[in-house]
Amino acid sequence: MRNLYYSWRFYTFGREQYYDCMNKVFSNNLLSLRQVNLIIAVFAGIFSAFPIVVENDFKKAGICAVVAVIALLLSLYSNFLMQQINIKNRLIYIISMIFYTNITLFGTYLGIWSNADRVVSIFSCFLICALLLFLNPPHFNFFLTVSAMVIYIVSSIIINKVPRDWIFDIVNVTIAGVIGLFFNWSITKLRMGMELSTTKLEEERSKYLDQSILDELTQLRNRRDFTNTFHRYVVNFRTTDDYLCVAICDIDFFKGYNDHYGHPKGDDCLRAVGGVLNSLKESMGVYAARVGGEEFAMLWFEKDVTHVDTVVQHVMKLIGDLKIPHEKSKVAKHVSMSIGIFVERCGAYGDTQTLYDLADKALYSAKTGGRNCAIVHGDEIKNYKILPPDAE
Asked: Which of 71, 193, 218, 362 could hold 37 in an S-S bridge, CB 3.0 to 4.6 Å?
């Protein structure tokens, strides 16, 4: 019995997957509550007019009107909750119970207390299946459905003195309850299975997307992502920024480093430099990518062109702080980097290749100018050199 309960409760997906799916699709219950309560409010409101017109029965009309008002309030409250960010599942349970109690008592009143007609009795049985619209744990649905069945059967036995009448009601309400439970279980399993499949597919998609745009060694973006991002920066630049900065970086004498220390050490060096450039996204809003073997690229926006120096000096300081020995370097005892930066007003260039070539030209100037430095230039500024902090 215990195994059956847990198999039913967790739908064979496992406890964690079950709760993850429930949390993701629980918001659908609010949409269902809003819609079905609105329908019941309209239906009960219209139905409240018949007792007055046909039977001159204000009591029955009043009960129908109260049901309509409760349903309308639940619909409005559900609509309000849909606009909130964080909704507790327990609150949705409570609203579902109020809704179910409302329609169960309404159906019981129509089918038994006001009129023991069998047609209305069958209609009331269909109300028991109302939770098919919602995604709830099966034990919660079981509790609500059995409660509704007990209320209906007890009321039928009390009111319908003839056994033939209440036996007919018991059979109908039992069949309706079993059908409701069975189909709710099946539909919920199907919806949860679809959600689980969607989640897994989305995870796989994200995984393959990351693999297609990430450089595996450095965990920086790769050249493909750089090309797409560069185009997006040029075309969809932010109106709050005045300048786009394009930087091409190259580790000084990296071939000599690889030959002397070996490729595993070379990979460690690239990983360390990649970690430094990766940290710039959070600290300074700089996008970085690995576009070649030891070549990297950076993109960022500036409001003030003079702030370019701050970013470049920060990068050079972080590279120096790594203190990676480089005996084959002709410019420093440790691994250093040459950087070429082109700065241009946003919207001035629509061709990414032109901007890239201009930054690459600045990198060439940095290499021919002694390496371990940065050359900044642009159409609106004169070329100037930036040395690392420890060289100044």
From this structure: 71
- φ, ψ at 323 (rounded to 5°): 55, 45
Confidence of residue 62 (pLDDT cuts 50, 70, 90): confident
**Which tokens sit at 48?**
């409240």
- In the chain, what is the straight-line distance between the N-terminal and C-terminal CA atoms, in Å? 78
As a whole number of angstroms, the distance between CA 245 and CA 378 comes to: 9
Strand 381-386's sheet: what is its strand order? 287-290, 295-302, 243-251, 337-345, 374-378, 381-386
**DSSP letter string, 133-173:** GS---HHHHHHHHHHHHHHHHHHHHHH--SHHHHHHHHHHH
Residues of the domain holding 6:
2-207
Task: Provide the β-strand partners of residue 287.
Answer: 299
Q: Which of 268, 277, 262 is nearest to 337 (CA)?
A: 277
Cα radius of gyration (the chain)? 35
Q: Is the pTM of this model over 0.70?
A: no
Q: Given the structure tokens 């000084």, which residue do they identify?
A: 252
Examine the domain organization and report whether 139 and 188 are in the same domain: yes
265 and 377 housed in the same domain: yes
pLDDT of residue 212: 77
